[in-house]
Protein backbone atom coordinates (compact mmCIF):
# COMPACT_ATOMS: atom_id res chain seq x y z
CA UNK A 1 0.00 0.00 0.00
CA UNK A 2 1.43 3.34 -1.02
CA UNK A 3 0.17 6.91 -0.75
CA UNK A 4 2.36 9.50 -2.45
CA UNK A 5 2.24 12.69 -4.46
CA UNK A 6 3.09 12.65 -8.16
CA UNK A 7 3.74 15.76 -10.26
CA UNK A 8 2.50 15.69 -13.85
CA UNK A 9 4.13 18.40 -15.95
CA UNK A 10 2.36 20.01 -18.88
CA UNK A 11 4.92 21.51 -21.26
CA UNK A 12 5.15 23.41 -24.51
CA UNK A 13 8.50 22.06 -25.66
CA UNK A 14 10.32 23.16 -28.79
CA UNK A 15 13.69 22.83 -30.52
CA UNK A 16 15.68 24.66 -27.81
CA UNK A 17 16.84 22.03 -25.31
CA UNK A 18 18.02 24.58 -22.75
CA UNK A 19 14.63 26.27 -22.74
CA UNK A 20 12.91 22.90 -22.41
CA UNK A 21 15.08 21.92 -19.44
CA UNK A 22 14.45 25.30 -17.80
CA UNK A 23 10.70 24.82 -18.24
CA UNK A 24 10.89 21.40 -16.57
CA UNK A 25 12.94 22.70 -13.66
CA UNK A 26 10.65 25.67 -13.11
CA UNK A 27 7.62 23.41 -12.79
CA UNK A 28 9.46 21.03 -10.45
CA UNK A 29 10.33 23.98 -8.19
CA UNK A 30 6.67 25.01 -8.06
CA UNK A 31 5.42 21.51 -7.22
CA UNK A 32 8.35 20.08 -5.26
CA UNK A 33 7.12 19.90 -1.61
CA UNK A 34 6.28 16.29 -0.74
CA UNK A 35 6.50 15.00 -4.33
CA UNK A 36 8.05 11.57 -4.88
CA UNK A 37 7.83 11.25 -8.66
CA UNK A 38 7.79 13.80 -11.49
CA UNK A 39 6.50 12.84 -14.93
CA UNK A 40 7.10 14.81 -18.13
CA UNK A 41 5.36 14.49 -21.53
CA UNK A 42 6.50 12.90 -24.76
CA UNK A 43 9.21 14.97 -26.49
CA UNK A 44 9.88 16.71 -23.18
CA UNK A 45 13.52 17.55 -23.90
CA UNK A 46 13.18 18.17 -27.62
CA UNK A 47 10.15 18.72 -29.88
CA UNK A 48 11.55 19.35 -33.35
CA UNK A 49 12.26 17.82 -36.75
CA UNK A 50 14.11 14.64 -37.67
CA UNK A 51 17.43 16.39 -38.36
CA UNK A 52 17.37 18.02 -34.92
CA UNK A 53 16.50 14.73 -33.21
CA UNK A 54 19.56 13.11 -34.79
CA UNK A 55 21.72 16.06 -33.74
CA UNK A 56 20.78 15.66 -30.06
CA UNK A 57 20.33 11.88 -29.87
CA UNK A 58 22.24 10.16 -27.08
CA UNK A 59 23.19 6.65 -26.09
CA UNK A 60 21.56 5.16 -23.01
CA UNK A 61 23.19 6.44 -19.84
CA UNK A 62 25.40 9.03 -21.52
CA UNK A 63 24.94 12.56 -22.84
CA UNK A 64 24.23 16.15 -21.75
CA UNK A 65 20.44 15.78 -21.75
CA UNK A 66 20.49 12.73 -19.50
CA UNK A 67 23.15 14.38 -17.32
CA UNK A 68 20.91 17.43 -16.87
CA UNK A 69 17.95 15.29 -15.76
CA UNK A 70 20.17 13.19 -13.51
CA UNK A 71 21.45 16.35 -11.80
CA UNK A 72 17.90 17.70 -11.48
CA UNK A 73 16.72 14.50 -9.82
CA UNK A 74 19.54 14.72 -7.27
CA UNK A 75 19.08 18.46 -6.70
CA UNK A 76 15.37 18.15 -5.88
CA UNK A 77 15.41 14.65 -4.43
CA UNK A 78 12.73 13.26 -6.75
CA UNK A 79 12.31 10.47 -9.26
CA UNK A 80 11.94 11.88 -12.78
CA UNK A 81 10.31 10.22 -15.78
CA UNK A 82 11.36 11.66 -19.12
CA UNK A 83 8.30 11.01 -21.28
CA UNK A 84 10.45 10.51 -24.35
CA UNK A 85 13.73 11.58 -25.86
CA UNK A 86 15.70 10.39 -28.91
CA UNK A 87 18.24 7.67 -28.23
CA UNK A 88 20.51 5.97 -30.76
CA UNK A 89 19.06 2.56 -31.58
CA UNK A 90 20.91 -0.41 -30.09
CA UNK A 91 20.21 -2.34 -33.30
CA UNK A 92 21.21 0.28 -35.87
CA UNK A 93 23.44 3.31 -35.12
CA UNK A 94 21.82 5.13 -38.03
CA UNK A 95 18.37 4.88 -36.45
CA UNK A 96 16.75 6.26 -33.29
CA UNK A 97 14.31 5.08 -30.65
CA UNK A 98 11.69 7.23 -28.91
CA UNK A 99 12.60 6.27 -25.36
CA UNK A 100 11.06 6.95 -21.97
CA UNK A 101 13.65 7.00 -19.17
CA UNK A 102 13.10 6.82 -15.42
CA UNK A 103 15.71 8.22 -13.00
CA UNK A 104 15.60 7.82 -9.22
CA UNK A 105 16.33 10.57 -6.67
CA UNK A 106 20.05 9.72 -6.76
CA UNK A 107 20.21 10.16 -10.52
CA UNK A 108 20.42 6.44 -11.32
CA UNK A 109 18.68 5.23 -14.48
CA UNK A 110 16.13 2.70 -13.21
CA UNK A 111 14.19 1.83 -16.38
CA UNK A 112 13.92 2.40 -20.12
CA UNK A 113 10.99 1.87 -22.44
CA UNK A 114 11.17 2.24 -26.23
CA UNK A 115 7.90 3.22 -27.89
CA UNK A 116 6.26 0.15 -29.40
CA UNK A 117 3.72 1.75 -31.74
CA UNK A 118 4.67 4.36 -34.34
CA UNK A 119 2.31 7.21 -35.18
CA UNK A 120 2.10 6.71 -38.97
CA UNK A 121 -1.23 8.35 -39.75
CA UNK A 122 -3.05 11.04 -41.69
CA UNK A 123 -4.66 13.76 -39.54
CA UNK A 124 -6.93 16.58 -40.68
CA UNK A 125 -4.69 19.34 -39.32
CA UNK A 126 -2.07 21.70 -40.72
CA UNK A 127 0.69 19.11 -40.31
CA UNK A 128 -1.31 16.44 -42.11
CA UNK A 129 0.98 13.44 -42.44
CA UNK A 130 2.83 11.85 -39.54
CA UNK A 131 5.45 9.12 -40.12
CA UNK A 132 7.33 8.29 -36.92
CA UNK A 133 8.65 5.02 -38.39
CA UNK A 134 10.74 7.05 -40.85
CA UNK A 135 12.86 8.11 -37.87
CA UNK A 136 12.35 5.61 -35.07
CA UNK A 137 12.79 1.88 -34.63
CA UNK A 138 9.94 0.00 -33.00
CA UNK A 139 10.42 -0.99 -29.37
CA UNK A 140 10.74 -4.68 -28.56
CA UNK A 141 9.95 -4.89 -24.83
CA UNK A 142 7.38 -3.88 -22.28
CA UNK A 143 8.70 -2.30 -19.10
CA UNK A 144 7.40 -2.52 -15.53
CA UNK A 145 9.43 -1.13 -12.63
CA UNK A 146 9.04 -0.60 -8.89
CA UNK A 147 8.91 3.05 -7.74
CA UNK A 148 8.22 4.75 -4.39
CA UNK A 149 4.67 5.38 -5.62
CA UNK A 150 3.89 1.88 -6.85
CA UNK A 151 4.70 -0.59 -9.60
CA UNK A 152 4.85 1.41 -12.82
CA UNK A 153 4.15 0.24 -16.37
CA UNK A 154 5.62 2.54 -19.02
CA UNK A 155 4.03 3.52 -22.36
CA UNK A 156 4.17 6.50 -24.74
CA UNK A 157 1.41 8.44 -26.53
CA UNK A 158 0.13 6.43 -29.55
CA UNK A 159 0.51 3.24 -27.50
CA UNK A 160 -2.72 4.37 -25.84
CA UNK A 161 -4.77 3.02 -28.75
CA UNK A 162 -3.58 -0.56 -28.24
CA UNK A 163 -5.28 -2.07 -25.17
CA UNK A 164 -3.37 -5.36 -25.40
CA UNK A 165 -0.23 -3.56 -24.24
CA UNK A 166 -2.00 -2.30 -21.12
CA UNK A 167 -3.42 -5.73 -20.35
CA UNK A 168 0.13 -7.10 -20.57
CA UNK A 169 1.40 -4.44 -18.17
CA UNK A 170 -1.34 -5.35 -15.69
CA UNK A 171 -0.34 -9.00 -16.04
CA UNK A 172 3.19 -7.96 -15.05
CA UNK A 173 1.91 -6.36 -11.86
CA UNK A 174 1.46 -2.73 -12.89
CA UNK A 175 -0.42 -0.53 -10.41
CA UNK A 176 0.29 2.72 -12.24
CA UNK A 177 0.74 3.30 -15.97
CA UNK A 178 2.48 6.31 -17.46
CA UNK A 179 1.24 7.71 -20.77
CA UNK A 180 3.40 10.75 -21.61
CA UNK A 181 1.95 12.24 -24.77
CA UNK A 182 1.96 14.84 -27.51
CA UNK A 183 -1.54 14.18 -28.88
CA UNK A 184 -2.55 16.39 -31.77
CA UNK A 185 -5.39 18.85 -31.13
CA UNK A 186 -7.63 17.00 -33.58
CA UNK A 187 -7.12 13.49 -32.19
CA UNK A 188 -6.88 14.72 -28.62
CA UNK A 189 -10.21 16.51 -28.67
CA UNK A 190 -11.86 13.43 -30.17
CA UNK A 191 -10.29 10.56 -28.25
CA UNK A 192 -7.82 11.49 -25.50
CA UNK A 193 -10.07 11.42 -22.42
CA UNK A 194 -12.13 8.47 -23.67
CA UNK A 195 -9.06 6.32 -24.25
CA UNK A 196 -7.39 7.26 -20.96
CA UNK A 197 -10.47 6.41 -18.91
CA UNK A 198 -10.95 3.17 -20.82
CA UNK A 199 -7.39 2.04 -20.12
CA UNK A 200 -7.86 2.84 -16.40
CA UNK A 201 -11.13 0.91 -16.17
CA UNK A 202 -9.85 -2.07 -18.17
CA UNK A 203 -6.62 -2.48 -16.22
CA UNK A 204 -7.83 -1.23 -12.82
CA UNK A 205 -4.64 0.84 -12.65
CA UNK A 206 -3.88 4.48 -12.04
CA UNK A 207 -3.33 6.25 -15.37
CA UNK A 208 -0.87 9.16 -15.27
CA UNK A 209 -0.74 11.15 -18.51
CA UNK A 210 1.44 14.28 -18.71
CA UNK A 211 0.96 16.08 -22.03
CA UNK A 212 2.35 18.64 -24.41
CA UNK A 213 0.16 21.68 -25.11
CA UNK A 214 0.23 24.52 -27.62
CA UNK A 215 2.22 25.24 -30.78
CA UNK A 216 5.49 23.53 -31.66
CA UNK A 217 6.93 25.00 -34.84
CA UNK A 218 4.88 26.06 -37.82
CA UNK A 219 2.49 23.12 -38.11
CA UNK A 220 2.36 21.11 -34.87
CA UNK A 221 -0.37 21.82 -32.30
CA UNK A 222 -0.96 19.62 -29.28
CA UNK A 223 -4.06 19.08 -27.16
CA UNK A 224 -2.75 19.21 -23.60
CA UNK A 225 -5.29 18.03 -21.02
CA UNK A 226 -2.77 16.41 -18.71
CA UNK A 227 -4.75 13.92 -16.63
CA UNK A 228 -4.62 11.54 -13.70
CA UNK A 229 -7.31 8.86 -13.56
CA UNK A 230 -7.91 6.38 -10.77
CA UNK A 231 -8.59 2.64 -11.25
CA UNK A 232 -12.37 3.24 -11.26
CA UNK A 233 -12.04 5.62 -14.21
CA UNK A 234 -12.56 8.82 -12.24
CA UNK A 235 -10.57 11.89 -13.30
CA UNK A 236 -8.62 12.90 -10.19
CA UNK A 237 -6.57 15.72 -11.76
CA UNK A 238 -6.80 17.74 -14.98
CA UNK A 239 -4.95 20.64 -16.56
CA UNK A 240 -6.66 21.54 -19.82
CA UNK A 241 -4.40 24.04 -21.55
CA UNK A 242 -2.05 25.82 -19.14
CA UNK A 243 1.72 25.38 -19.29
CA UNK A 244 2.16 24.28 -15.70
CA UNK A 245 2.26 21.10 -13.67
CA UNK A 246 -0.32 19.55 -11.39
CA UNK A 247 0.22 17.59 -8.17
CA UNK A 248 -1.74 14.37 -7.74
CA UNK A 249 -2.18 12.31 -4.57
CA UNK A 250 -1.92 8.68 -5.66
CA UNK A 251 -3.42 6.18 -3.22
CA UNK A 252 -3.24 2.49 -4.16
CA UNK A 253 -4.78 1.30 -0.87
CA UNK A 254 -8.19 0.53 -2.39
CA UNK A 255 -6.87 -1.10 -5.54
CA UNK A 256 -6.74 -4.67 -4.26
CA UNK A 257 -10.32 -4.53 -2.97
CA UNK A 258 -11.55 -3.21 -6.33
CA UNK A 259 -9.71 -5.96 -8.17
CA UNK A 260 -11.17 -8.61 -5.86
CA UNK A 261 -14.70 -7.29 -6.22
CA UNK A 262 -14.42 -7.14 -10.01
CA UNK A 263 -11.79 -9.77 -10.94
CA UNK A 264 -11.54 -8.98 -14.65
CA UNK A 265 -8.08 -10.50 -15.02
CA UNK A 266 -9.30 -13.86 -13.76
CA UNK A 267 -12.44 -13.62 -15.92
CA UNK A 268 -10.55 -12.72 -19.10
CA UNK A 269 -10.79 -15.57 -21.62
CA UNK A 270 -8.51 -13.81 -24.11
CA UNK A 271 -5.25 -13.71 -22.21
CA UNK A 272 -2.69 -11.26 -23.62
CA UNK A 273 0.32 -12.64 -25.42
CA UNK A 274 3.26 -11.14 -23.54
CA UNK A 275 6.05 -9.80 -25.69
CA UNK A 276 9.49 -9.61 -24.12
CA UNK A 277 9.27 -7.84 -20.79
CA UNK A 278 11.75 -5.90 -18.71
CA UNK A 279 10.73 -5.89 -15.06
CA UNK A 280 12.81 -4.30 -12.36
CA UNK A 281 12.51 -4.15 -8.61
CA UNK A 282 14.10 -1.80 -6.12
Give the SSE layout.
Layout: E1 3-8, H1 17-31, E2 35-39, H2 50-56, H3 64-76, E3 79-88, E4 96-103, E5 109-114, E6 120-122, E7 129-131, E8 142-146, E9 151-154, H4 163-171, E10 176-178, H5 185-203, E11 206-209, E12 213-216, E13 220-223, E14 226-229, E15 235-239, E16 246-251, H6 255-261, H7 264-267, E17 277-280
Parallel strand pairs: 1-2, 2-3, 8-17, 9-10, 10-11
Antiparallel strand pairs: 1-16, 3-4, 4-5, 6-7, 8-9, 11-14, 12-13, 14-15
Termini gap: 15 Å
**CATH third-level topology:** Nitrilase/N-carbamoyl-D-aminoacid amidohydrolase
Q: If you compute it from the alpha carbons, what radius of gyration comes out, rounded to the nearest whole angstrom?
A: 17 Å
Give me the side-by-side strand order of the main sheet: 15-14-11-10-9-8-17
Give average pLDDT, whole number: 96
> Tell me about the biggest sheet?
7 strands, mixed
Describe the model.
- With 282 residues, this protein is α/β, with parallel strands linked by helices.
- The protein has one domain (3-280): Carbon-nitrogen hydrolase (Nitrilase/N-carbamoyl-D-aminoacid amidohydrolase).
- The chain is built from seven helices and 17 strands.
- The strands form four sheets. The chain has a seven-stranded mixed sheet, with helices on one face.
- It is globular and about 50 Å long.
- The model has no long low-confidence stretch (mean pLDDT 96).
Amino acid sequence: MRKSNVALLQLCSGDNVRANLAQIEQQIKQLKPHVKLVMTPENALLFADTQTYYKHAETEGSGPLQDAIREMAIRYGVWILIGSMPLISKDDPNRLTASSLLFDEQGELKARYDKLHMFDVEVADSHGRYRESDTYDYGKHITVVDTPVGRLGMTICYDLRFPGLYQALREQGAELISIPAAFTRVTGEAHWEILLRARAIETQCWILAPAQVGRHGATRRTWGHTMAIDPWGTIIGLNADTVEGIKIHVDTSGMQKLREQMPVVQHNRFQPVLINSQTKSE
